[in-house]
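4.2 Preliminary Data

To establish feasibility before requesting continued support, the project team ran the inverse folding procedure on a target of 356 residues. The structure was first converted into the token representation described in Section 3, and no sequence information of any kind was made available to the design step. The complete token record follows.
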């Protein structure tokens, strides 16, 4: 039963923090007028949910282990030169097949496919479903206005293309793209600060008064609570930075924990009461935010480094390079996770956790 509760509490912690993190990306994108087609809790999979203002919100078949906000126009590929013509033709037809687009616009099937795929990544078209026998693309539905795959009148092809392009991540200047990438991290850290203020300044905590030796209820000032939050953020930042220092990397890893340790701790804090559990979530939120700053894809920090490189050099990082970097980064993350899991299992065998 304890194992079930550990998994449940860990699932609650991760779900809350992933939701907070993705909210940061979502709100930053929407503030800058960028289209977000999905906001999901869980890894990509069949989902249930609802659509509001062009975004589908929901839960996938793989909940409690991730989440994502699908911001349009974040692809690294070179833009197709046929986007404007393909977009206008697709909307005038409502439903198109790749070969039909290629034939009408006198381009190759590969060129038509590249343009259609990019437009579907923009959220301007709906990509083929598993039920489609051919490479079929459709115009998206708009509640109360258009059905899926419905024909639409395009009076000015260029103006229509520009209106779609302006809703893409890739159309925004560097500083706006930077804010969208760092938005999730900021929300994780902001969540911690707000939680500290609520716990220490609004609700208050019980602690032993060193002068009297008695347990008393006290509240900190808002300033002191915020200061305590930033001190904790600084401590975690220094710890994570220790991973990049050969002299401290081993010690940092030995003092870290994996999801196994987090599961054990989440139950311990939950057993101690709701306030303690929320405090634990706030602490893990710091770790999630700071860890996402690590400059390796596919973490947010990796994307930020790529954006800075492209800004300085004026060159786009090729898709193949990004894929290789993401694969290497993922392998490094999995290696670290494997080491931490092994470390936590050894702690369990030696009774380390039972003494917490």
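Position-by-position output of the design step:
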């Amino acid at each position: 039963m304890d194992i079930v509760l550990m998994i449940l509490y860990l699932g609650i912690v991760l779900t809350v923090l992933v939701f907070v993190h993705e909210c940061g990306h979502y709100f930053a994108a929407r503030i800058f007028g960028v289209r977000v087609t999905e906001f999901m809790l869980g890894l990509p999979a069949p989902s249930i949910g609802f659509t509001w203002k062009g975004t589908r919100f929901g839960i996938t078949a793989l909940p409690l282990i991730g989440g994502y906000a699908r911001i349009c126009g974040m692809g690294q590929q070179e833009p197709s030169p046929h986007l404007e013509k393909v977009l206008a033709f697709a909307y005038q037809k409502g439903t198109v097949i790749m070969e039909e687009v290629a034939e009408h616009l006198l381009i190759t099937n590969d060129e038509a496919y590249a343009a259609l795929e990019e437009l579907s990544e923009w959220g301007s078209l709906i990509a083929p479903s598993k039920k489609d026998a051919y490479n079929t693309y459709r115009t998206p539905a708009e509640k109360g206005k258009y059905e899926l795959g419905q024909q639409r009148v395009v009076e000015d092809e260029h103006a229509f293309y520009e209106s779609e392009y302006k809703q893409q991540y890739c159309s925004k200047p560097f500083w706006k793209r930077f804010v969208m990438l760092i938005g999730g991290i900021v929300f994780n850290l902001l969540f911690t600060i707000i939680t500290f203020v609520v716990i220490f300044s609004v609700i208050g905590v019980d602690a032993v008064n060193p002068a009297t030796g008695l347990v008393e209820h006290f509240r900190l000032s808002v300033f002191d609570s915020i200061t305590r939050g930033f001190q904790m953020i600084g401590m975690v930042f220094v710890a994570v930075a220790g991973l990049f220092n050969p002299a401290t990397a081993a010690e940092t890893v030995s003092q870290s924990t994996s999801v196994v340790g987090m599961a054990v701790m989440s139950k311990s804090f939950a057993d101690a009461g709701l306030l303690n559990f929320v405090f634990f979530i706030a602490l893990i939120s710091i770790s999630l935010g700071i860890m996402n700053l690590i400059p390796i894809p596919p973490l947010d920090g990796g994307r930020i480094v790529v954006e800075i490189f492209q800004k300085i050099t004026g060159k786009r990082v090729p898709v193949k390079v990004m894929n290789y970097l993401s694969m290497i980064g993922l392998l490094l993350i999995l290696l670290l996770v494997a080491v931490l899991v092994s470390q936590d299992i050894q702690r369990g065998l030696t009774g380390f956790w039972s003494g917490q």
